[in-house]
Design a protein that fits this description.
Helix content is about 20%, strand content about 25%. The chain has seven helices and 23 strands. Strands 19-18-17-20-21-23-22 form a seven-stranded mixed beta sheet, with helices on both faces. Strands 1-2-3-5-4 form a five-stranded mixed β-barrel. The chain has a three-stranded antiparallel beta sheet with strand order 6-13-14, with helices on one face.
Length: about 450
Amino acid sequence: MSKNKKFNDRPFAYRQEIEFEVTTLTNLGLGLGRVPLPGGAASAAPVPQSRGEPGLPGTPAQGAGGWVVMVPFTLPGERVRARVYRNHKNYSEADLLEVLAPSPHRVSPPCPLYGRCGGCQYQHLAYAEQLAWKRRQVAELLEHMAGIHFPVDPVVGSPREFGYRSKITPHFAGPKGPVTNADAGVSIRDLTPLSFPIGFLRQGTRFDLVDVPRCEIATDAINAKLPEARARARERAAAGEYPRGGTILLRDAGGAVVLDYDEAVTEEVRLPGAGGVLRLRFLARDFFQNNPFILPAFVAHVAGQAASGGARFLIDAYCGSGLFALGAARSFQRVAGVEVSESSVAFARENAAANGVGNAVFLAAEAGAVFVGLDFPAAETAVIIDPPRKGCDESFLLQLLAFLPRTVVYVSCDPATQMRDLRQFLNAGYGLVRVQPFDLFPQTRHLECVATLSLDRRRPAA
């Protein structure tokens, strides 16, 4: 029995070491393998969600080869030695101790903090293989969560594998916070005000921080500015400004790094072909895609898919400062962008004028009132939706499916919630036309996925 009374010691004892082969990756970036148990009682129970996020749907726990064990920083085909730290009802979690037989796709991570910092999951995996696994995971999510087989296009890779991220938000607990320094192993209360960690959560924890003096996926300009930002945060904390900790924002807009949440920045997006250059202003704290190097291809694809069904009108829901609406405006007679944030709508209007776009209007409205006041005929309208990670609000989906536009282009940073919502579109009579992932987040488990749906040009599920 475990000395920890709260630890469930079945099927493994606390800190028990086990060896097994990793067979696949979950969409959380974890290696997954199976360990035979005495008796081998079969169970078809799926691996449950982890920390509120979906794991690999449909993966049986015991049976089909053994009990499921998940270990970070491992790859399919590797034999590993791991130490169990938690048993769930249907699977176990373990820390990697040693890779006994490495995958041919394993590479050396350039970041010295990799494996401790929880920001990246794939630095040990060759980039071409990252793209292949992300494509496979989108296809699996389509099958298990949307209930259909459909060909997923190869993932469009980022022109930069490192040094691409144009915004980071390191955080800290502050001199009086409860968080520990994961590297030093000491309480924050034992540290001086000028030595507490500023960085990101330690892998596999909810409260421990890893000090991050440099981030390999951030742009060079951000890393050049990061020492100044960290020093300023520590000085302000020492002066008592952050008794409970805080967050630093660094936003790189064309090489000019802004630290002020409320400062307006300008981002240029050079669209392919005759698309020209979009110049977009927004607040540094506002949402904006954080990989400017892949952004031109990403925006061009979304705009092209919206226009591909022949619609004359476009509605950009969740429009922000107007990125997709303005990027697609030249392909439509009239465009309307809708956004809950009034400040973002004000910037979108300013951006339309600055870019010479005269056929677009922008409205501030709640998600439940996107179509109020719009006179676009549904049969001639395309809708772009780019909701937050949690997916679409039910009220928004209900009104969208009551409106029944000709084409829907669903952009998502979480394919799992996207595929969940997709079921409602399919039930309403839409058919998938195309599924195109974009890797806006190399070295991490995250990606953007663009699903195009058509009401009048269906493609039967494969």
